[in-house]
């Protein structure tokens, strides 16, 4: 039995070209546009993140391939419309990396070596100054100009806050953020007391925004922290379901007190040695 061939990046690009062939290609791939595959791109990135969080590295390999396929798909669409192609994407990326890492690549050359070492803080500072120059070149002068509207709400809130902080619009420590959080909770309670649906939504949004700000001051990533919170809740809820089933109980038949007792039992088992 002959070993399976080891495919190359060139093979992948050719496969994508064949899939999009107007006469002999795949009808689904032929029908796609830049806009139509964006949901798939986002889904593949989240699946990659999930595999990494689970430390399922064989899955990580698969998901990285799926993400790469998205890049190749966009590059093929760009080539067909004479906008750009894969080599141009690679060139732009390599040029950007060389330009943004002068502390590694002397004179912007791939093999150029910088003998003097630097620390992470200086790297971040230089990175931001280089990106600021790039924004100026794109005629983006506002601190928030290139924060994408399409980012999910939690990471976008975090990015907006970080940009504002760079120009001095920020709290000096965690304590005033906690005070602001209490203020937002009070304002939400007041809106609820007035039964003002519009104000409730607005105050709830302010509360979430402040929670993200608190996470930033604690040097936590809001999206990552919430994903971990989701996973913890899911694991506990599944354990709660299992306990109820073992007792011959249906969750729907239990009152709030019984459900709370089950929940506390699950938490107790978690903390048991």
Task: Give a structural overview.
- With 273 residues, this protein is mainly α.
- It folds into three domains: 9-103, Helix Hairpins (Orthogonal Bundle), CATH 1.10.287; 153-220, MazG-like (Helix Hairpins); 225-271, no CATH class.
- It has eleven helices and no strands.
- It has helices spanning 9-19, 27-31, 38-53, 57-80, 86-100, 120-137, 153-166, 174-194, 197-217, 222-246, 256-271.
- The longest helix is centred in the last third of the chain and has 25 residues, at 222-246.
- The chain starts with 8 loop residues before the first helix and ends with a helix.
- The mean pLDDT is 91.
Helix content: 55-70%
Number of domains: 3
Strand/helix succession: HHHHHHHHHHH
What oligomeric arrangement do these chains adopt? single chain
Specify the CATH class of the largest domain. Answer: Mainly Alpha
The largest β sheet comes out as: none
Shape: extended
What Rg, in angstroms, do the CA atoms define?
25 Å
């Amino acid at each position: 039995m002959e070993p399976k061939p080891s495919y190359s990046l060139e093979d992948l690009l050719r496969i994508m070209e064949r899939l999009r062939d107007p006469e002999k290609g795949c009808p689904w791939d032929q029908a796609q546009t830049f806009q139509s595959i964006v949901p798939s791109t986002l889904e593949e990135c989240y699946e990659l993140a999930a595999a990494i969080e689970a430390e399922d590295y064989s899955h990580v390999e698969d998901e990285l391939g799926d993400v790469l396929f998205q890049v190749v798909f966009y590059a093929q669409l760009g080539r067909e419309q004479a906008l750009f192609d894969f080599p141009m994407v690679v060139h732009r990326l390599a040029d950007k990396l060389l330009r943004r890492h002068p502390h590694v690549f002397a004179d912007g050359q791939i093999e150029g070596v910088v003998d003097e070492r630097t620390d992470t803080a200086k790297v971040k500072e230089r990175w931001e100054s280089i990106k600021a120059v790039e924004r100026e070149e794109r005629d983006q002068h506002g601190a928030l100009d290139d924060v994408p509207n399409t980012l999910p709400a939690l990471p976008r809130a975090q990015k907006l806050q970080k940009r504002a902080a760079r120009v001095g619009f920020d709290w000096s420590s965690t304590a005033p953020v906690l005070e602001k959080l209490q203020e937002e909770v009070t304002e939400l309670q007041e809106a609820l007391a007035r039964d003002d649906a519009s104000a409730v939504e607005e105050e709830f949004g302010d509360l979430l925004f402040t929670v993200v700000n608190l996470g930033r001051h604690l040097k936590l990533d809001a999206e990552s922290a919430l994903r971990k919170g989701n996973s913890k809740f899911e694991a506990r809820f599944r354990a709660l379901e299992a306990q109820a089933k073992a007792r011959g109980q249906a969750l729907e038949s239990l009152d709030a007190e019984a459900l709370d007792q089950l929940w506390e039992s699950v938490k107790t088992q978690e903390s048991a040695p």
